[in-house]
């Protein structure tokens, strides 16, 4: 009887261990992501086509999901929860997050004039700070879309997390902090809402059918990601790809960056499946701090007092969040 009573506890331990593992992997992959992006540039520019790189990221994620499914089929057979065949009602929701992530990636890569328009009102450090608004937007959309209420302590931790990340990114040599006009704030809020909505909506899709195998859900999400990114190649870089080739400007660093993005995308979906977007936000914030520390050794980056103060605030936020759980 004691052994039977311990079974749920063992299952909960495994679930917690899996959640901790995928969160750790996501943090490591995200922290190395920015470094690989910097290394992939030549003289501050991308020699390769960003749209083709995004397409390959989606294709690689799709292939990895299919490989994982093949292993599951060999071991457990094909069931209703792991079969690829599905209905249109289940698949029709995947184009929405795929399109949102495409727009987000293109805006971050600077392929649309929208981002250039932002920099007309906000300088680069200010933009990086305003981008932390997606922490707050994620919390708000988390409650609206997923109907899960954050406790007062968790909201306090969220605000501290946003403040800590902002403090860590402050430039001590600049006397002007966040002196952006209304247009800059509006654009930053739009970007934050876009990023937050894409993440929360994806989590809602993944958790709509908890028993559904995550690799099947990933496969269909990435299929639509490939379709939208192929459209981006056709509209943005068609002439360049036709004249110079699909892999023009690619290097070993570019390949590693694509691999990193693919594994990061799968890790994000795992975190959403077994944890939530709140955990993802904390993981991304910690990854930002790790990136800064690694940059000290790789690029001679100097850590300021603001960084250490911000890191302390982030640590307090993580501790507060860990002591309080979300309630419905």
UniProtKB/TrEMBL annotation:
Q: Where in the cell is it found?
A: Membrane
Annotated keywords? Membrane, Transmembrane, Transmembrane helix
Record has RNA-binding as a keyword: no
Molecular function per GO: pyrimidine nucleotide-sugar transmembrane transporter activity
Q: Which domain of life is it from?
A: Eukaryota
Main location class: membrane
Q: Which SUPFAM superfamilies match?
A: Multidrug resistance efflux transporter EmrE
Please provide one cellular component term from the Gene Ontology annotations of this protein.
Golgi membrane
Classification via PANTHER family: NUCLEOTIDE-SUGAR TRANSMEMBRANE TRANSPORTER
Q: What is this protein called?
A: CMP-sialic acid transporter
Species this chain originates from: Solanum verrucosum
